[in-house]
Amino acid sequence: MADIAAKDVAQLRKLTGAGMMDCKKALVETSGDIEAAKDWLRKKGLAGAAKREGRAADQGAIEVVVEGGVAAVVELNCETDFVAKGAEFKDFVGALANQVARDGDADLAGQAYDGSTVGETITQMGSRLGERIELGRIARYESADGILDGYKHIQNDRGTIGVLVELAGVSPDDANAQSVAHDIALHIASAAPRFVSKDDVPADAIEKEREVLTELTRNEGKPDDVIEKIVTGRLNGFYKDYCLLEQGFVKEPKTTIAKLVDGLGSGATVKRFVRIKVGED
Description:
Elements: H1 6-16, H2 20-29, H3 34-44, H4 49-52, E1 59-67, E2 70-78, H5 81-84, H6 87-103, E3 112-113, E4 116-117, H7 118-129, E5 134-142, E6 147-155, E7 158-168, H8 175-191, H9 203-219, H10 224-242, E8 248-249, E9 252-256, H11 257-262, E10 269-277
Antiparallel strand pairs: 1-2, 2-5, 3-4, 6-7, 7-10, 8-9
Helix pairs in contact: 1-2, 1-3, 2-3, 9-10
């Protein structure tokens, strides 16, 4: 099997408007030849590439639903913000979020919807509105003994960022914990962390960052005997940028998220979170 680079998949998607998995399959089938992959997609009828070349579904809308012990976030993509902020489009993504919360997120495209399937409804909507429309990212959390919360950032009349967060080790009825969970969801939307804690950062990512910082520090002319100390300090900055618990709370930057959570009791912790922004990988 050909070794397909992510950048080539992204380029093919941008050129054809096809889905990411279809683009990867096309490149695998054509040994990484982008021009041949474009033809492969056209032959399979997967992209309509001949008339949509250069157009990609990188706009869209997001909806967040939190009901009791279930939370869901759904992204639906299209080509223009004009379509994304239309009532039909927003109502549909809202209906999908409710469906995911109720029925689960497995094979959403194949789930029944209004006498058809979700996938067929999306195809029909795309034909009617004259744009490529496709499902984006989907997440669903369930919690029986913790707190789930969510946040939707609205811009240009539709949701553009969706966040789900789960706190564990707290009572679902604790009003203070509920407030903190919502504050953390809002913070995640703004600060865009990638990981909950340092422990969640993959070892290879840390090693790569260390190598980059070491080379950067050496190129700045720092003495060899202090490079390691400087790199360690800069790695701490990396953690503050990308690890939720290390970040300063957006409302009170001198207070870290870890300290905010600690205030809920010794067993309180952020179990997981997801952040989805329209048009962002």
